[in-house]
Amino acid sequence: MNSVLRLLTVIGGSVLLTLVAGWLADLLLRRADARHPETPLWSLLRRCELPLRLLLVAALLRGSYRQTGWRPLLAHEAAVGRILSLVTIGAGAWFVVHITSAVVESSYARYATGTRDPSRLRRVRTQVTLIMRIVTAVVTLVAAAAMLLTFPGLRAVGTSVLASAGIIGIVAGVAAQSTLGNLFAGFQIAFGDMVRIGDTVVVAGEWGVVEEVTLTFLAVRTWDERRITMPVSYFTGRPFENWSRGGIQMTGTVFLHCDHSAPVSLVRERLREILDGCEAWDGRGWDLAVTDTTPTTVVLRAIVTAKDPDDLWTVRCTVREQLVAWLAEKHPYALPRVTTSPAAPAPRAPAASGPAERFRDAGPGQTRN
What we know:
Layout: H1 2-35, H2 41-45, H3 49-64, H4 71-75, H5 77-113, H6 118-149, H7 152-163, H8 165-175, H9 177-192, E1 200-203, E2 206-213, E3 217-222, E4 227-231, H10 233-237, E5 241-242, E6 250-258, H11 264-276, E7 281-293, E8 298-306, H12 309-330, H13 355-361
Helix pairs in contact: 1-3, 3-5, 5-6, 6-9, 11-12
């Protein structure tokens, strides 16, 4: 009976202390959040309540389970202690990841409120995302190593592994060459500002927006909602187009093939009217010029501008559609056509009347008076 009471006291006391500590921590965080509403740190730290409680109860039980005096528990003391140690290590790693995430997200939120440059925000967001992934990977690796060290049998295995660490390191380096290359490429992308989340890029002939950047791969969302996943080493080893670097405003072209008789000046005036009525045009610039000619057509190039790639696509489609419709309605002769009638003969040269011409026209042995 005394052992049962001890068991209930130890477990109940640990749970009670955990609940009280969690309640006090939440109360302090709520008060800090109310006093400092300008930073989201304290509200983000409240997300750590669950891993904190798990860490506290596991640590308290790990230190006091021997005081229960309960025979079934003492009979498996080593196994119970190891399980509680594993839970404590896992909860501690979970708690550290949540704390780091709260601090990083809070720092990014404060930076975002004071920065108006979208390109800088995308760059910092990319770096913050990769930093969190690195921290999570490192904490997970350390926690897994600490868990393995709780097993006495694995310590002997670790000693033998360290004895052959040179050979294993060479083999692992050769086997993981591609993975390590992607890992270092991820660091290069994150801190070299090559590509950022939200950038508009053209890779492998596909146009899309960077949706996710990790240490090993990068996801691009195309205009038709497809997802292209590429290793990050692709962006460090091959050329690609980044339309968002150096500003997201863009200049685009629209080409029209017209007949030689096309009224270029009227087409230029119509282009200006179309752009004035297009909301996607940013008003920075426009132009229309004859850039090429062929035996059957002339090439008109319209230049338009927009504040971002999406608006540029809209402006180009609008200009192309409305110019073609206007030419078909008002000036159908200006559209390309295939000539099937015989070509007009060249005009004949006027008759010559000078002395040299009269002599040249006379036959052999003849003279003209």
